[in-house]
Amino acid sequence: MDNYLKSTKTMIEEKYDSFTQVEKVIADYFLHGTIEDFSSKAVASTIYVSEASLSRFSKKLGFSGYREFVFSFNANMKENKRLDQLTSFSIHKYQEVLEQTYQIVDNNQIIRIAKLLDSKKRVFIYGIGSSGLVAKEFASRLIRLGLDAEAINSESDITANSPRVQSESLVIGISISGSNPNVIAGLKRAHEKNATTVLMTSMQRAYHDDIIDEIVKVAHVKNVTVSHIISAEFPALVMTDIIYTHYLNYNKSDKLESLKEILNSIDYKFEK
Fold it and tell me: I need a labelling partner for 130 at 20 to 30 A (CA). Which of 54, 145, 199, 219 fits?
């Protein structure tokens, strides 16, 4: 992901654990120190490291050298909004999820799923709890583009929906853990009826690849403290937005016409 999408301090914090001891000394100085002279000679002498170490540190962050790093650092400092620690922490954690999404997203897979959405007669989206919120939002957006989509959000409804699934159906299951038994059982029944199945999950291994046609990986929030701050559905929402963007690209004029019709209907209701 391009460096300009995040602050230089955020980049340092994200890489901190991978730094050598010398690099951590440099990182701490730029994160917490009071710097009056940014020249490599002045900084190196102040914290007792070599100028070559400053250069290696900068390159490890993705810059061409120390001068580019300092330019970016100073630019960010001038734009500093004086956010407190809690606000900065929350924003940085969301940035980490976006960075992880950037690293794991399979562009060819996204294109395949977008084409499936464009070719299937009916789409069912299974999700329970926070994953159910993602399913509802995703289905709602697809419906606005003219797709026959429906979110199914409870154990009983997923079971009851099974007779409606046909071979020309697309069934998408959303389970961040990848282990929700009701979602997995629903996908298994859909597979047995020759429907196309997709699982959206943060699990690292494809445990269900015998019944799932596509397993879409979403960002995984590892730290328990962080998982209490970041909305559980956020990583999946990011991925559904990417899929939605690609789906919109196919027969775009028809989809935009459907969206325009719905928006006009909403405006008409408010006018009345």
Answer: 145
